[in-house]
Amino acid sequence: MTDMTNYERLKGTTDVSPERALVTGATSGIGRATALRLARRGATLCLIGRNESAASTLREEIEAMGGHALVVLADVSDAGAVERAVHSFAKAYQGIDTVVASAGVAPTGNATETSIEDWKQCISINLDSVFYLARFAMPELIRTRGTFTIISSDAGLWGDSNFAAYIASKHGVHGLMKSLALDYGRYGVRTNAVCPGFVETPMADKLLASLSPEKLEALRKAVPLARFAQPEDVADVVAHLSSDEARHANGLEYRLDGGKTCGHYKP
């Protein structure tokens, strides 16, 4: 395992090595890439997800790197399951330094098209789960002066048609993030949100599957950098925000969208 550089060590964990990091949604996409990125800097991981096979494969990859990972199969929309996952990891490794909330779903449809079930599931997974994670992990982060990083979306910064539930959930996430930053910054806990545009993940693939090649290319060209993000792009930002290099970043909405939300762009 490569030693962590000084700037990547978390302030407040100087007597504890390695860093202890909990990641939800760790079995796919951004969460998976983030778990691998944190493992590469020396963190011991708690991988929370629902796909047992994918979680086991990820744990094997981390262990092959010389790292350590605890797999917890849990539905993050279940408050009790989140509480048990947080407490079991904190007990096993005597604390938590880093929390990354990455679980999410993205149903499509406007208010009249979105089913009640889809609305409830989206709010529960995208917003409620972040609250549960903060509620149960924040006492641990206060003890370690740790970090709480939320994977949000550019959908939390502006509106979009046919994503009523998703847009509402992400705007709620940003309100919660700001409250956490204000309430717990005094204890040295930094809370931030990363706001990507489209990221090439399985979830995005499902959303874009119905588009013609021409429409897909037009979407890419609407980004000033002319490409969608990769999961590793997001993971690198999470690694930065959860490191001492970003020691004064708190309450930040980090726009990782290639310039898409800067304004009207004409390719």
Could you describe the 3D structure shown?
- Belongs to the short-chain dehydrogenases/reductases (SDR) family.
- Pfam families: adh_short_C2 (PF13561).
- Residues 19-161 form the Ketoreductase domain.
- It catalyses: 2,5-dichlorocyclohexa-2,5-dien-1,4-diol + NAD(+) = 2,5-dichlorohydroquinone + NADH + H(+).
- This is NAD(P)-dependent dehydrogenase (Short-subunit alcohol dehydrogenase family).
- By secondary structure, the protein is α/β, with parallel strands linked by helices.
- It contains 8 helices and 7 strands.
- The protein has a single domain (13-200, 230-253), classed as NAD(P)-binding Rossmann-like Domain (Rossmann fold, 3-Layer(aba) Sandwich).
- The protein has helices at residues 29-40, 52-64, 79-93, 116-144, 164-184, 202-208, 213-221, 231-241, and strands at residues 20-24, 44-49, 69-73, 98-101, 147-151, 190-196, 253-256.
- It is 44% helix and 13% strand.
- It starts with 19 loop residues before the first strand and ends in an 11-residue tail after the last strand.
- The longest helix has 29 residues, at 116-144.
- Strands 3-2-1-4-5-6-7 form a 7-stranded parallel beta sheet, with helices on both faces.
- Helix 1 (29-40) links the parallel strand 1 (20-24) and strand 2.
- The radius of gyration is 18 Å and the shape is globular.
